[in-house]
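We close this part of the discussion by returning to an individual protein. The amino acid sequence and the backbone structure tokens for this protein are reproduced below:
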Amino acid sequence: MGKQIINNDMIAYMLIVLIGFSLTSIYHEIQHKRQLAAESITGIAQGTVSATILPPPVPPVIRLDIALNPDNQSSDLNWTDFSADHYLVYYSSNISLILNLDPDNVPGDVTVVNASTATNWTDTNARDEPHRYYRITAVKSGMKNLSYDSVGTCYLDLVKGFNLIGLCMNASYSAESFMQGISHEIYLPSLTKLERPNEFTESWISKTLGYGVDYDIEEGEGYLLSLDHTTNYTIVGDVFYGPHTLQLAKGYNLVSIDGHKAFTAESFLQNISSTIYLPSLTKLERPNEFTESWISKTLGYGVDYPLFIGEGYLLSLDHYYNYTLE
């Protein structure tokens, strides 16, 4: 009987110890959680707690298009409708300001037009500048959604006789479709390209309006245009998005620039290495139909001159070279 009592006492004692241990563990767990809560509150108050913030939803892409009106002077902008409170049109003759535009910090050289809730706008004064570039923003509830597209217009002043030209907007032209936009008085216009598949082959391929084999007009290439009268030509389209690489052959090449970077003949040539002969760049200057001057600039020598979008240039190299326009 005594032995049984001792065993019961031991069991009771063990139960008391276990219960006490459990209560102690629960107490420490509660204290630990209180400490964590206190630290979180302190962190929030001090701004030291990091939190994962989900990014805002991606706004819809605004598609911006441009079209030339029959007057060959004004341009129509059209864009997708997002039921915005209003739309803002930005334009400038400086392509870099438009491509790098911040709608919340618009430079002074960028003009801003409130187009209200319309999804189109006509620039009746587009001809005031040789080149003009555009973007738009949809404004809704204070939020601004800037168009990804940048479009533009450029005007080529063309003289009777020969002109060296280049494509100044990302517009789709063949030689035939390009010349269809040019009137003629006596002689049909013609467009000639220089094809250089290798250093031993030099082919001047000419296309006359309505005659000959057609070909595409491409970014970065120059072309020789022949006209029977003085006129001008307007090109509209998306701006070029670089980089674009020109594959240049040894000898002569007809080239043009995309306008993203300001070049002079010297700065353009400085990016080209030479092995024996220095590279040279030649422009055709036509102040009027009676004057035709070929002005050549060799790297490090001669009078420098600026390069313009829409103009073509004759480049001479002593080796093959890939030139990247950025």
